[in-house]
Amino acid sequence: MATMDVLSAKFLRSCLHPHAPFLPCPSLPSRRYRQPFSIYCRLSTSSPSSSSAATTSEGDANQDLSALLSDESTTAAPGAGSRTKRPNSGASSIPSGVRLENISKSYKGVTVLKDVSWEVQRGEKVGLVGVNGAGKTTQLRIIAGLEEPDGGNVVKAKENMKIAFLSQEFEVCASRTVREEFLSAFQEEMGVKTRLDQVQAALERATEDMDLMGRLLDELDLLQRQSQDVDLGMVDVKIQKLMPELGFVPEDADRLVASFSGGWKMRMSLGKILLQDPDLLLLDEPTNHVDLDTIEWLESYLKIQDVPMVIISHDRAFLDQCCTKIVETEFGVSKMYKGNYSEYVLAKAIWVETQRAAWEKQQKEIEHTRELISRLGAGASSGRASSEQKKLEKLEKEGLIEKPFQRKQLKIRFPERGRSGRTVLAINNLKFGFGDKILFNNANLIVERGEKIAIIGPNGCGKSTLLKLALGTEKPQEGEVILGEHNVLPNYFEQNQILLPGRSS
Ligand SMILES: Nc1ncnc2c1ncn2[C@@H]1O[C@H](COP(=O)(O)OP(=O)(O)OP(=O)(O)O)[C@@H](O)[C@H]1O
Ligand SMILES: [Mg+2]
Known about the structure:
This protein has 505 residues and is α/β, with parallel strands linked by helices. It has helices at residues 2-16, 38-45, 48-52, 58-67, 72-75, 136-143, 178-183, 187-205, 210-226, 233-245, 262-275, 292-303, 316-322, 341-376, 382-398, 463-471; strands at residues 98-107, 110-120, 125-129, 151-156, 163-166, 280-284, 309-312, 325-330, 333-338, 423-434, 437-448, 478-483. It has a 6-stranded mixed β-sheet with strand order 5-6-7-3-8-9, with helices on both faces. A 3-stranded antiparallel β-sheet has the order 2-1-4. It has a 3-stranded antiparallel β-sheet with strand order 11-10-12, with no helix packed on it. A hairpin with a 2-residue loop joins strand 8 (325-330) and strand 9 (333-338). Helix 8 packs antiparallel against helix 9 (210-226) and helix 14 (341-376) runs antiparallel to helix 15. The structure holds adenosine-5'-triphosphate (ATP) and magnesium ion. InterPro entries: AAA+_ATPase, ABC_tran_Xtn, ABC_transporter-like_ATP-bd, ABC_transporter-like_CS, ABCF_ATPase, P-loop_NTPase.
């Protein structure tokens, strides 16, 4: 097909030549976004008067047309695509996915990653774990090309790999319909189509300027080659197939994105990514703010995907369900464990124990040697003492076993308050909603001293609103919300809480 496209542009060029004979048009391969070849034929035979009907002066028109021309149209080699090429900087290679080799990264002199090496291939799902700030997102950003590492290699299976990155903030546009949102996944291809249409329209207007027409034809040829990978006729079919897989019903296609909850927006973001058939899928905390049903759905959905995948999550059960490999980042250094999260916890515990035993043994040896040196230090045994000393120095320089680090459990202590009354919160016959949406209708709840309550429910059912009603920041439309009178001080830790300067925790 590539040859055909190049031929068609060449053919058109020949038609442009003032002395070229009029030739019948060959038919083009059928792609929905390609204009029928006959348009070009009309061009070559259109009368000058038709072009003079344009409202702008010829000079202005030509200026507009020139804006349509990319630099590439005159320089690109046949078959060159529009995607940016990133050189494969690694010395080694990988058949699919990506490999990080000895990656390091610092920000303003603070080392975040010291020595990170791991890989993910087709069929593998890597879980990236580590404490807040360990550098997990940084690794994904480096793979996606959004950050440059200071050292090391990012070895990709091929150049121009399609890397999909689902970040913590789901990128959807509230004012689009669901169908429009999915269509936006093909933005690049749609852009090429729009340019194709523009260039073809421009060709119709530029009949008197042979030089400009020639350049426009080069541009047309380039755009045709760029659009070969995508069959826009398949876009609708793909979207219709994907929507039920993501749990959407056909009527959802015309609903506004804004009317869906966070969990559904996550499904849209994921769907948009999958529509582009990525070679690598990077997911940064995809389960944040989504309800239990959606997490379960996501687990089973990701499990059947074959694309190499890297998942950052603090949800152990989720990692257990999805991952085939765990990479832990601690103090800027990565360690790779085969298996899911539970297997990692077990393997790590064994490693820590073995390491601790080896460290303790070595420490005892060192202590013993030191004692020996001080005992033999003087007199006839000083020769042996100095050889023991040399042994000790060599060990301390080269062979010291690292003490395994065990993080202390984080403890949160709330300030002491006097004992409260028995009833801490009473909600009686509560009615509350937003607009037509009723969240609570005749709801009742009693919270007693010492109780710890989990509020569960699907996204958008009103869990946060219930807390706001308890705090008094929302008022019931009917019924009452009563806080206990004695020593009850409500406090609220919001989602995505940001501590602003001057605001205490
Ligand atoms: N652009 C940047 N400029 C300065 N510091 C940065 C930048 N990006 C990341 N950092 C720092 O690098 C460290 C690692 O950040 P990163 O977001 O990768 O951590 P993380 O493991 O994803 O944490 P979390 O679990 O909280 O999401 C943090 O200390 C962060 O403040
Ligand atoms: Mg992060």
